[in-house]
Amino acid sequence: MTIGLFIPCYVDQFYPKAAIATLELLEKQGLQVVYPFNQTCCGQPMANSGFAHLTQGCNNLFMQNFKDVDYIVSPSGSCVLHIKDHLHAENAADEPVAHHIRKRIYELTEFLTDILKIENLKARFPYKVGMHQSCHGQRGLKISQMSELVAEPFSKPEKLLRMVEDLELIELSRKDECCGFGGTFCVTEEAISAKMGKDRVKDHLEHGAEFITGADMSCLMHLEGILRRQKSKVQVKHIAEILNSYA
């Protein structure tokens, strides 16, 4: 199968190591991966701010870039959910292309778990790691169970992390609590966002985390900013980097 690698703009600009790790991880599974060089922002920031009607240019470019691949994989649950929920064609004749993309786009951990059905990984990461369950992935893509539901718990990212040799996955007191990033929410509601982020960081620190990981680099960027201001030695690392690690 041919995989189209969708790298969100903030990952491309600020966290390229997460993108490289995603590429290498997919290639290790024997997949042919292509990266459309013309890709830009998917339009999520505009949609989150109430301007989804202005994202058609982003939609058109996304369709042009990814119309010919079997699957689209991205290391960002929020961007994937945006495409699943908001990608539509400008013309009715092109809507089958949009429909194909909406059904074939996956966040990295759900692709590894649900499509490739990975059962083992050759990775080693000898550290205590806290897993942050981002809201878009958990409540939108359903890559982990919500604690308020009376249902069997599951977490696709945690399942993959437990395959990593010498990694100690710590337990958190409030494992699916929002970090407060929320895209443009962290700009419009700065004080609330910062307090929520500090609470999330505190939970990880109290349980001895050496690294905080997750499937959305945007949430990790928010937590990283708080850790730096607190002069903490705890680091953030996208889950792709850990699953691709031989530390």
Write a compact overview of the structure shown.
The protein has 247 residues and is α/β, with parallel strands linked by helices. The protein has helices at residues 9-14, 16-28, 44-48, 56-66, 77-86, 95-104, 108-115, 135-140, 156-161, 185-188, 190-206, 217-229, 239-243, and strands spanning 2-5, 32-34, 71-74, 105-107, 128-132, 168-169, 211-214, 235-238. The longest helix is centred in the last third of the chain and has 17 residues, at 190-206.
Helical content class: 40-55%
Weakly predicted, low-confidence segments: none
Identify the overall geometry. Answer: globular
What spatial order of strands do you see in the largest sheet?
2-1-3-4
How big is the Rg? 18 Å
Structural class: alpha/beta
| C-alpha end-to-end distance | 30 Å
Strands, total number: 8
Q: How many domains, in number, for the residues? A: 2
Percentage of residues in DSSP E strands:
5-15%
Number of helices: 13
Reported for the largest beta sheet, the result is: 4 strands, parallel
What is the CATH topology classification name of the largest domain? Rossmann fold
Listing every helix as H and every strand as E from the N terminus to the C terminus, the arrangement reads EHHEHHEHHEHEHHEHHEHEH
The CATH architecture category of the largest domain equals 3-Layer(aba) Sandwich
Instruction: Specify the CATH class of the largest domain.
Output: Alpha Beta
Mean pLDDT: 95
GO cellular component, one term: cytosol
Protein name: Fe-S oxidoreductase
Pfam family, one: CCG
GO molecular function, one term: oxidoreductase activity
